[in-house]
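As a warm-up, study this chain.
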Amino acid sequence: MEIAFQTDIGRRRSQNQDRVARYTDKNGHQLMIIADGIGGNLSGDVAAEMTVKRLGHRFKVDSPENPLDAIRWFAREVQIINDQILKKSKEKMIYQGMGTTMVAAIAFQQTLVVANIGDSRGYLLHDKLLTQVTIDHSLVNELVRNGDITEEEALKLPQSNIITRAIGISPDAQIEVNRFDFHPGDQLLLCSDGLFKTVEKRTMVAVLNQQISLKAKCAQLIDMANDAGGPDNITVLIGKNDDQEG
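Now compare it with the structure written out below.
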């Protein structure tokens, strides 16, 4: 598994509240995670940092053994982090209302387990076709799913930044967790909304299909988001299944 990631403050924000990391457990499995902090008088970065570091720590000391175990592991560990953030939000005024979105994945040879809450996204590139494998927990996505508006219209609405679920906002974290085939040559793209709200899906596909390093792909996507105005923090992680044994 080859992995690269990059985060950028963007053009219009005074602080980067995104966090990104990868962790390896004792069996060599990889955890990849992005958290995009929200609310709380600019303390969203605290919630994002807690989520990434604590999930990573748990992965290193008590990681799931297989994909089915990983589904239960994500649900349990994220709920614990949710409780910890809610508790911390009561410690100081500056922490009140802080929370974070999260998208994370664990790779098991030819299976990916992907978890998300909020509107940070996961995509899977297979045979040059890019599929979104997460569901946005956002107000506009509810309208899209009900058929009231199109995906293109959703990106233009001023309410596009209103999310309906996040870590640290309510007692129940309500994450989505699903498993997917992950074949040799497939690529996983995790990103915060600063990317997909500014860079079209077909452009992402073109970048991912290039014969360049994953690091160069991350840099290209972030440059494109900034060239489109960079209204938000931008974080990109790309993982490629480089197992040649099939």
